[in-house]
């Protein structure tokens, strides 16, 4: 018969081993994706066989859900702590500082990785419903940090509620996006990075006196929108949608063909294999961004004019009939060789935003700030726009700039 002390030791060992499994799994899911990670992979990291892992988590989906729920609970804790501060600006700055401090503890080896939210869509419906419900609660809590930031009561004003939800999505996207780039900084510099990030999020990019430009000739900057879609382009669009929704493993030839009401045979008539098609999806995204940047670069105007134009055009593309662009979070689930090549290409395109920022600082239209972090935020905002309709159902190519681009450029609370 077990004594109370023996039961306590067994309970402690169980909890410690379970937490160790969650730590290892979150790191693997972030790097290889849910469909690219097996229970055996997790077991190898913690010294257990697959049968032993199933003692703690019966199925891989149970393990994924547990990792996501643990991260959501941590994020809710950070939001709750930030909510104790006074003004909306102070709450936002506190949330960013607390989140980056949590990343610093991961970098120092003190805490495990937080799991990326991109894998929620890879779960079966029964698990996804639980995860989305918890995520929605977390989102509402983060949106609460922005309370009193709107001139009218959002609960009584649908337009204000849409604006508030869009800004909450922007805040969460820019903060969590730091997981993908903060490793380029020394952990000792993380607090300064948090201050810079909070300054850009709260105060925007525009110099004092610089006005928001509400007009955009989208077709001039996105000539592809005026061209008829070929069958191959339709495959690229469908594959992009599935990659965004279900990740690399979920974007199968069967699913891509079914989305276009075509047979699997039609898929292989137009595409050599799935990896070639997915590589072409990245090339398509790079071409859209590169061509738009090049067209804007030849335009007259200030650096501010150009940065706003390229940002608004690319967000417009997200909502167009030929959009969306690929979500940046898909990189983690790609085969290693493809991941390295495509990430290098996208890093170069992200760096091109720096050119407009520097020009704007030189001509006085953009305030002095850290160009590298600001460029990452602009790129992150464009990427996050693909998810905007989840939080703002009436988001369209016509109003997305006001809802999403303007708060990024002018400041979240302005």
Automatic annotation (TrEMBL):
Gene3D superfamilies recorded: Homeodomain-like, Tetracycline Repressor, domain 2
Superkingdom of the organism of origin: Bacteria
GO molecular function: DNA-binding transcription factor activity; transcription cis-regulatory region binding
SUPFAM superfamilies (UniProt xref): Homeodomain-like, Tetracyclin repressor-like, C-terminal domain
Keywords for the protein's UniProt record, in alphabetical order: DNA-binding, Transcription, Transcription regulation
DNA-binding region: 38-57, 252-271
Residue ranges of every copy of the HTH tetR-type domain listed in the record: 15-75, 229-289
Descriptive protein name: TetR family transcriptional regulator
UniProt source species: Cupriavidus oxalaticus
């Amino acid at each position: 018969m077990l004594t109370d002390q023996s039961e306590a030791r067994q309970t402690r060992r169980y909890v410690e081993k379970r937490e160790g499994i969650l730590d290892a799994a979150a790191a693997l899911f972030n790097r290889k994706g849910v469909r690219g990670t097996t229970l055996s992979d997790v077991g190898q990291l913690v010294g257990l066989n697959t049968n032993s892992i199933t003692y703690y988590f019966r199925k891989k989906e149970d393990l994924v859900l547990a990792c996501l729920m643990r991260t959501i609970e941590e994020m809710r804790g950070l939001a709750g702590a930030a909510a104790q501060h006074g003004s909306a600006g102070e709450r936002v700055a506190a949330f960013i500082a607390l989140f980056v401090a949590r990343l610093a503890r991961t970098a120092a080896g003190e805490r495990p990785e937080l799991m990326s939210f991109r894998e929620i869509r890879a779960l079966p419906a029964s698990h996804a419903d639980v995860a989305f419900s918890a995520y929605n609660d977390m989102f509402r809590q983060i949106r609460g940090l922005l309370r009193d930031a709107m001139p009218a009561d959002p609960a009584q004003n649908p337009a204000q509620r849409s604006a508030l939800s869009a800004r909450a999505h922007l805040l969460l996207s820019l903060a969590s996006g730091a997981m993908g780039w903060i490793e380029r900084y020394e952990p000792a510099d993380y607090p300064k990075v948090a201050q810079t990030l909070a300054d850009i999020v709260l105060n925007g990019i525009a110099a004092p006196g610089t006005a928001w430009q509400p007009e955009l000739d989208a077709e001039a900057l996105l000539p592809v929108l005026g061209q008829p879609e070929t069958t191959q382009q339709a495959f690229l669009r469908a594959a992009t949608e599935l990659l965004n929704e279900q990740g690399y493993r979920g974007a199968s030839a069967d699913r891509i063909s079914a989305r276009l009401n075509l047979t699997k045979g039609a898929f292989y008539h137009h595409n050599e294999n799935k990896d070639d098609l997915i590589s072409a999806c990245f090339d398509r995204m790079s071409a859209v961004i590169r061509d738009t940047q090049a067209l804007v670069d030849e335009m007259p105007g200030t650096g501010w004019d150009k940065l706003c134009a390229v940002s608004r055009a690319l967000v417009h593309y997200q909502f167009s009939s030929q959009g969306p662009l690929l979500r940046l979070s898909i990189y983690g689930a790609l085969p290693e060789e493809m991941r390295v090549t495509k990430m290098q290409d996208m890093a170069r395109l992200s760096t091109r935003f720096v050119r407009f920022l520097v020009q704007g600082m030189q001509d006085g239209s953009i305030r002095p700030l850290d160009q590298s972090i600001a460029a990452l935020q602009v790129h992150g905002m464009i990427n996050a726009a693909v998810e905007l309709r989840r939080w703002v159902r009436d988001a369209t190519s016509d109003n997305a700039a006001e809802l999403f681009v303007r708060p990024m450029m002018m400041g979240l609370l302005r």
